[in-house]
Amino acid sequence: MTKRVCSFLSLLILIGLFLNGCTKVHDAGHDAENRRKGVTGMSDNLTEDRYKDGGNNTSEADGMNGEDHFDPKFELLLEAEDVAITTGKVRPESTYPDFSGNGYLVGIEREEDTVTFNVSVPGSGFYDLNFISASCDGYKENNVYVNGEFVGVAKVERTNFQDSILKRVYLKAGKNEIKLTKSWGWIRLDALKITASPPIDQDIYKISAQLVDLYATDRAKKLMQFLVDMYGKYIISGQYSDKGINGPEFKAIYSATGKYPAILGLDFIDYTPSRVAHGTNSKAVEYAIEFDKLGGIVTFCWHWNAPEPYLYDTSEKPWWSGFYTRATNINLEAIMNGKDPQGYELLLRDIDEIAKQLKRLQEADVPILWRPLHEASGGWFWWGASGPDAYIKLYRLLFDRLTKVHGIHNLIWVWNGQHPAWYPGDKYVDIIGMDIYPGERVYSPHTSKFFEMAKWPTGKRIIALTENGCLFDPDLAFRDGAVWSHFCTWNGDFVWSGYGLSEKYTERYMFEKVYNHEKVLTLDELPDLRSYGQ
Ligand SMILES: [Ca+2]
Questions:
Q1: What does the alpha-carbon distance between residue 518 and residue 276 come to, in Å, rounded to a whole number?
Q2: What percent of the chain has pLDDT above 70?
C-alpha cells in the first residue's frame, strides 16, 4: 500500500469514526476499509472509441448462430493498443520497453478512464483472463467487469510487463464485454490473453476433519465434521450482530426472508482490558451461549484494543479506536523480539482476559469458530503493522497460551491473515478465511479469489468468506465452483439501516434469494450439532 493510500485510508477511518460515534467504531472502520477496497460503478459514458473494432473478432461472434461449443484449448491474444475501446484519457504509448505488438495503453488514472475488450468465445464456460501489464510504481490492482458484472481485480506488483491472471471467469458463447476500470489505476496495459480454464479439481472440497488442537472438545470435533461434510455442497449463512439473535441485523433478515442466519458473528472487543478500563462491558458470551442453545453456530473475532500505555488517546486518535495501527504506537516487532518486555507482559495479560471468556464458553460446551488477529496483511490493525514474522509469532503465542496454559479446546482456528506469507503453519490453522467488501450491490462470488486461495501453500483447508459487505449470489458460486464454506456479513448498515432492512449493499430481492436458496443453510436447517455424526 502506498503512503498516499494509507493517509487517505486514515482520513476515511477518522471521518467514519466521527460520523458513527463510539459504539459503532468497528463498523466505521470496516466501512472505511470498504471504501478503500470499493469498486466503482461502471461508466457507460463512452466518450472515445478510437480503437473500436480495430481487428477485434466480433464478426466471428455474429456468425456463430447461437452455437455453443466450449474449446478446452481456446486461446486468444488481444493487443490492448490495437483493439480495446477506451474512454477518458486512456491512450496508446510505445516508449516503455518489452511490450508486445505495437505498444500498450496508459492513462488509467480516474474513474472515467476505462478499457473495454469486446471478445467472442466459441462456448460458454470458464476462462482465465490475463491482463498483461506493468505497474507504473509498486503494487496496483484494478477492477474487472464482464458483461457489466464485477468479477475481480487484476493485480500487478512490478514495473516490467508481467502476467496478471484472473482465473475462472465465466464467459458466455458469443460476444462478451470485458472492461477494466480504475481501482488504484497507474498501469501500462499491454494485452489481454484469454485461455480456457482447466477443469476444477474436485479434490479441493475433500478436507480432513482433524482439528489442529489434538485435545479439541467433542463438540468442536462435531462442528468441524459438519463443516467438512457440507463443504462444496452447501453454503452456511452467517451474520455479525453485537446483540445476538435479537439484534437488529437478525431481525431485519428474518423479517425480509423468514429465515435466521445459521452463524452468529460476535466480537471480544469490549472485553479487552484497555477498553474495560474506560467502562466498556459486553454480553457477547451470553449471546453466544443463547445462540448455541437455539442450535446455531458461533464465530468470534477480536478487535484487540492495544494496551493502555500504547494508546495515543487524543481527539483524533481516541482510546476506543486502539485496534487500528494509526491509534497506537505499539511495536509488535519489538515486543516479539524481546525488546519490550513490559509490552509482552501486557499482551499476555490481554490474552488471559479473553481466555476467561473463552473458558466460560467452553464450560457451557459451546464450540467457536475462532478468528483472531484478522486481516493482518492489510496493516490497518496493529497486529499486522510489523510484518508477517512478528504477526506469526503472536499468532503462535496466542495458540499456545490458549490451548496449553489455559486448556481451552472448544476452538476451531480460523486464520484470516489474508496473504500466504502470513500463514502461521499447518499446526495452527483449521480453516482459512478471506474478508471481502466489493462495494455496493456487487453479488459476485469472488471466484478468482477463491481459486487463488485454493492454491495457497496452506495445506488443503476449508475456505470461508469470513466477512463480507454484500451477499454473493449462490447460483453464481455453484456455477463457478467457488463454494465458500460459509459467509458472515458484517453488522450495522450492511443489513440494518437504523429503522429496517438496509438495501445499500444488498437489495431485498438478493436477501430473499440467498436466505431461501436450497443450497444455503439457515438456522432452521441445521442438524442437531450436539449429536452430529453419531
Ligand atoms: Ca501490446
A1: 43
A2: 88
Q: What angle do CA 526, 530, 532 make, to 5 degrees?
A: 65
Q: Residue 51: its pLDDT value, please?
A: 31
Beta bridge partners of 92: 105
Contact 146, 178 (CB under 8 A): yes
**Structural contact between residues 96 and 133, judged by C-beta atoms closer than 8 angstroms:** no
| Chain-centre distance for alpha carbon 368 | 20
State the catalytic residues.
Answer: 375, 467
* Nearest-angstrom CA–CA distance, 253 and 355: 32
- Which DSSP category does 313 fall into? -
Residue 116 CA to ligand 1 centre (angstroms) = 14
Question: pLDDT grade, residue 459 (50/70/90)?
Answer: confident
In one letter, which amino acid is 169?
V
C-alpha cell, 466: 469470513
**CA quadruple 450, 456, 462, 466: dihedral sign:** negative
3-state secondary structure of 252: helix
Residue 89 has a CB neighbour count (10 Å cut-off) of 13
Q: Ligand 1 mean position to 29 CA, how many Å?
A: 40
Nearest residue to 475 (alpha-carbon basis) of 522, 435, 502, 510? 510
Taking only the tens place, the pLDDT of each residue in 211-249 is 999 999 999 999 999 999 999 999 999 999 999 999 999
Helix (H) or strand (E) holding 397: helix 388-400
Reported as a pLDDT band with limits 50, 70 and 90, residue 406 is: very high
Measured in angstroms, how far is the CA atom of residue 81 from the centroid of ligand 1? 6
| Number of other residues whose CB lies within 10 A of the CB of residue 363 | 10
- What does the alpha-carbon distance between residue 219 and residue 98 come to, in Å, rounded to a whole number? 58
CA distance 31 to 365: 34
Q: State in Å: Cα 170 to ligand 1 middle.
A: 24
Residue 350: pLDDT above 50? Answer: yes
Which grid coordinates are listed for 528?
Answer: 442437531
| Span from the CA of 178 to the centroid of ligand 1 (angstroms) | 17
CA distances from 24 to 37, 243, 321, 324, 469 (A): 20, 12, 10, 14, 16
pLDDT score, position 89: 97
Query: Cα separation of 190 and 184, whole Å?
Result: 17
Q: Report the separation in Å between the CA atom of 198 and the middle of ligand 1, taken as the mean of its atom positions.
A: 26
